[in-house]
Amino acid sequence: MTLSVQKRREKQKAELRSELVAAAHKLVQEEGYEGLTIRKLAKRVGYAPMSVYSYFADKQDILFALAEDAFETLARRIEEHPADDPVEALKAVMTEYAAFGLGNPNEYRTVFMTEKTRLPEGRSYEDMEEGNPAMKVLIKRVEACVAAGKLKGDPRAIATMLWTVGHGTISLLITFPFYPFGDPEAYVKRMCNFMVASLSAQDIPPLTETPVDC
Amino acid sequence: MTLSVQKRREKQKAELRSELVAAAHKLVQEEGYEGLTIRKLAKRVGYAPMSVYSYFADKQDILFALAEDAFETLARRIEEHPADDPVEALKAVMTEYAAFGLGNPNEYRTVFMTEKTRLPEGRSYEDMEEGNPAMKVLIKRVEACVAAGKLKGDPRAIATMLWTVGHGTISLLITFPFYPFGDPEAYVKRMCNFMVASLSAQDIPPLTETPVDC
DNA sequence: TCTCCAGTTCGTACATGTACGATACAACGT
DNA sequence: ACGTTGTATCGTACATGTACGAACTGGAGA
């Protein structure tokens, strides 16, 4: 029965942690992203400020938890998206992803633009794909395109390249809203179309293989 | 003679500002990026902490000043780069840029990955190209490629797309060093080659024109 | 039952960015 | 000469993240 006690402990801890995340979420909704402070959060749940640190390593950790929630919602939204043609399904990933990033710049930033990148306990990238469900969907849809003969090459490499461009696009649109990209959505579409068209014209080698020239 | 007095004032102020930047630079070199604090910086130049705020709006402003210095060095390095073939010259911009970003992740982050994007006084993107000299070189070399018939379309649009991909590449490599991109330089080369090859296969419309499909 | 221990809670303290307002001083108009 | 005004400097104070260690608590072994 020692294990069951352990488990109960863990469950209680997990519950309090989610309570904290929920409170943080509400706080952000009410007072904005920078309105979230440890002291306010602690007061919300009736704890002392330092007690929060029993559940999160630091403030960034809380922001990451919030962002992860948001990214899971994104993944769900992507998967719900109608996907008749595999190429359209792939493009839908990128446009949904972009819409999410532009609509949730704070969450996007905490995941992709901070120095403290948190890979939760495990050190491998496997964990990152686990923590970033959108990436899994992306790879799956790339594989569908490869299977349908619309794309050719290593699916992970293709997905990574798409991710790179998608991230570059979103990230610049977020950071330099005044730069004359034209309509943000149009620019996203442009990059999306450009990438799919260009990728379909080549056989993309896996990431481990170095292209020699340049 | 009122003007000359004004000017002397301004010059003195500018001098003190650069002295602060220099001190900040030394501080960062000696104690690392997070070792730079307002109090330490003030002590270095023999001022009270709050006096720093007569020369910089806030701490970010100091970091931006440091980063701008670094980016000017980058632009100089790029322009010094041998450039016989226009396409090679263009690729050199991207690889130098990437090398800079990977070698100076902190400076890169303060310019491209923070929320407080500072456009110094003017509100137009013209100022941004002024402040980011690397972009000017990029556009110039794209124009050379277009003139040589190696690329086709609107130079600014092509440059912006290259910038987008370059930024995405660097930014992901900085944020997720553990992700299996393979060798960072190889991945940079891959994206660089891919983009130049793909762009040369199309006629790129200006940014204001929306592609219809997707 | 008593002791001990691991883990949770939290009081205190410190470094930091920076808002606010006081002070001092230089240039100017009268 | 004298008040006025703008500006550079800075003392103080506050909010914030968080390090440190004390106090508590609930269960395990003696």
TrEMBL record, chains A, B:
Give me the positions annotated for DNA binding: 37-56
- Domain named HTH tetR-type is located at 14-74
Which SUPFAM superfamilies does this one have?
Homeodomain-like, Tetracyclin repressor-like, C-terminal domain
Please give the start and end residues of each transmembrane region. Answer: 157-179
Pfam families under this entry?
TetR_C_33, TetR_N
Keyword Transcription regulation in the entry? The reply is: yes
Q: Name one GO molecular function term.
A: transcription cis-regulatory region binding
Q: Which organism is it from?
A: Mesorhizobium atlanticum
Alphabetized, the UniProt keywords read: DNA-binding, Membrane, Transcription, Transcription regulation, Transmembrane, Transmembrane helix
Question: Which InterPro entries does this UniProt record tie to the protein?
Answer: Homeodomain-like_sf, HTH-type_TetR-like_transc_reg, HTH_TetR, MT1864/Rv1816-like_C, Tet_transcr_reg_TetR-rel_C_sf
Name the UniProt record assigns to this protein:
TetR/AcrR family transcriptional regulator
